[in-house]
Amino acid sequence: MIASVRGPVRHVGLDHLVVEVGGVGLLVHTTPATASEGRTGAEITLETTLVVREESLTLYGFAGRDAKALFEQVQTVSGVGPRLALAMLSVHAPEAVRAAIATGDLAALTKVPGIGKKSAERLVLELKDKIVAAGVDPAALPVAPAGGDDAVATQVRAALEGLGWSAKQAADAVRTVTSAEGAPREVAAVLRAALRELGR
Predict the structure, then answer these.
(1) 3-state class of 43 per DSSP?
(2) How far apart are CA 154 and CA 191, in angstroms?
(3) Which of 53, 66, 69, 104 has a CA positioned 20 to 30 A from the CA of residue 60?
């Protein structure tokens, strides 16, 4: 099991990074927000989970142990695989996912592309007791900032479409969050704000 990786970033994609470890470039799938924090040539450390399938070995990376732990926990629920688990972390912060499950907030869970009402109910049924027992405080959900410009908006639209929203939904959300006066222009900020907008 590859538990973590550290090394210079060789490539930054919308939803992945290539990190060089011991002369080998490892493709690490991650959330768009985490990927956007990578800088080509700069060293990065990611907590990772290696998912082994008959036909592939896929490495998923996270900025911290909390996100990694949640990624692994939600996959104990029937029907939730690594792609869906990563989509959950792309839409919500780990504490927001836990709060939604702990409080039975199906509306928040179904904001994730690929999670319908039945899947959300199954997540709550199977994980609520475990999350509450772990002492999670289902208080306020995290708030995200807004921002962007044309180049950033294009990247964010592509990332949103990759997560399952339609081109129109992605474009409308980006337009809304980038029209605010004095909005920041970083990809991660625009993406978080767009995800929040889509979740309304």
Answers:
(1) strand
(2) 11
(3) 104
The domain that holds 55 is classified in CATH as 2.40.50.140
Measured CA to CA, the distance from residue 112 to residue 199 in angstroms comes to 8
- SS3 label, residue 74: helix
Q: Could you report the per-residue pLDDT of 87-130, keeping only the tens digit for each?
A: 999 888 888 899 899 999 998 899 888 899 999 999 999 999 88
Which of 45, 37, 80, 41 lies closest to 61 in space, CA to CA? 45
**140 pLDDT more than 50:** no
- Other CB atoms within a 10 A radius of the CB of residue 198 amount to 20
- How many C-beta atoms surround the C-beta of residue 166 within 10 A? 11
Q: How far is CA 19 from the centre of its chain?
A: 18
Q: Are residues 16 and 51 both part of a single domain?
A: yes
Count of C-beta atoms within a 10 Å radius of residue 16: 20
Count of C-beta atoms within a 10 Å radius of residue 193: 25
Give the 3-state secondary structure of residue 98.
helix
Q: Tell me which residue range forms the domain holding 52.
A: 4-62
